[in-house]
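Sorry to interrupt, but I need a hand with the structure work. I would like you to pick a protein and set down its sequence and fold. Please put the record directly below this note.
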Amino acid sequence: MTKSSSINCPACGAPNEPEAGTTYMACTYCGTNLTIPSHLRTKAIPKVEKTSSKAKPVISPEIDAPDLIRKAQPVAIKAFNLYAYWTWLRWLLPACLTILVLGFILCIVLGALPFVFGLFQ
């Protein structure tokens, strides 16, 4: 900046160069708060940030464990329910088949009893 764009501190008289984009600043020598006059204010230079390619973050088990457990919980509940249904069906299907076979045999035996004992002649 040029000499004409500096502000003299009213407390200590030191020259201060205003920063771009600010309306207030502190004196670099004594720390007094200075208001930058409107004719000396300049617009801030926009900062350009470089965007890097978004790399997949590395999962740290110690840090991300609660989140991973929360995400896995519905899957674990469904797996447990499927296991419970499977164990129930493993007991139910053979029991039903056994009852069905025994009932069929019982019907045949009871239906054949009159003929065996000669009740119908």
Summary: The helical segments are 61-117. Residues 7-40 form one domain.
